[in-house]
Amino acid sequence: MSGPVPATEPGWLGTRWTRLNGPGRVAGVDLARGLAVLGMFAAHLLWIREPFTWTDASTWVAVVDGRSSILFAILAGVSIGLATGGRTPLGGESLRTARVKLIVRAALLWVIGILLILTGVPVYVILPAYALLFLLTVPLIALDSRTLLVLAGTLAAVMPVAQVALDDLPLWRTTSGSLLSAVIGWHYPFTTWIAFVLAGLGVARAGIGRIEVQLRMLGVGVILAAVAYGLDAATGVAEADERSSYLAALWTGRAHSTGLLEVLGSGGFALAVIAACLLLCRTVAVWVVLPLRAVGAMPLTAYVGQLLVWAVVASAVLGRPGDLAGFRELDPLAPFVLWTVALCTAWALLIGRGPLEWILDRSSRLVATASVGRVER
């Protein structure tokens, strides 16, 4: 009589496949991250001369302008929430360890961001702002979903009022102010953008894998976007008029304005996109979008890789990395997108975690282990 057949361990490719498609990953979040990364590529590399208008198909490419980075910010909050307990926030030693890891990640993101700025590529590098947002989130990761969402909504409604005055400070028109702006990523001001991260953290705490949460996200996101963009279309001001008065600067949905209507409209748009991705990945389409999910599984590597390749190619072809017009005239978007998707898919299936994601994870684990060990002694 033969005994039970022993279970076989999955091979190397099997473990890579499980990492990308197993229960440890939320496929819809990876898909949304992939779209955010490629949307930021488009915002960097395309000429976007007209603002996004729902009724004019010729302007639809402008949907990536501003909204991709806000989508990325909300997804950062989702990722923090999933990594720190999901529906149930971590506590005790686990919470202390998670906070140390988050601080280390913030420090490394800031360093990477500064190095990217030094390449001379003419984009507003978002990583210094992300670093500050991560730090601001450290004391808040133990909060429950309701508290986080109320706090996010309050900040989204209140902070744009203060942001107009903050953006108008004489400091930003000085040499030292310009340097400070780059160092802290003020193009994505943490004072208001913390609302996006907390919204993402809040929906992660609500249980982002539950269909009822996904449907509520979709509904709330669509309503916020429709109301805010509708008000902007009906009563918003032209960009030139924003400089004329405080109220004009506040009451705008223009991309990167941090006006009230942009914060609410683009924030709602991002929530709706994430919810749509989560719902889509409940269907067989989850396999169709696997290459996009692979990009979303290593967003830092894809983002940094794009800017480094940009710096090298622009220097070799144009003589300097800062020639934005010249680089855009090379029509680089399609090759950048195709190569990024192909390389990320191959790396995810053959190797696993993205290289920069591995460095951040390994470094934060080592520092957290050493820090907790010192506390115990």
Automatic annotation (TrEMBL):
Pfam families: DUF418, HGSNAT_cat. The chain crosses the membrane at residues 26-48, 68-90, 102-119, 148-166, 186-206, 218-238, 269-290, 302-321, 333-352. Residues 25-210 form the Heparan-alpha-glucosaminide N-acetyltransferase catalytic domain. Keywords: Membrane, Transmembrane, Transmembrane helix. InterPro entries: Bact_Transport_Assoc, DUF418, HGSNAT_cat. This is Heparan-alpha-glucosaminide N-acetyltransferase domain-containing protein. Residues 255-360 form the DUF418 domain. The keyword DNA damage does not apply.
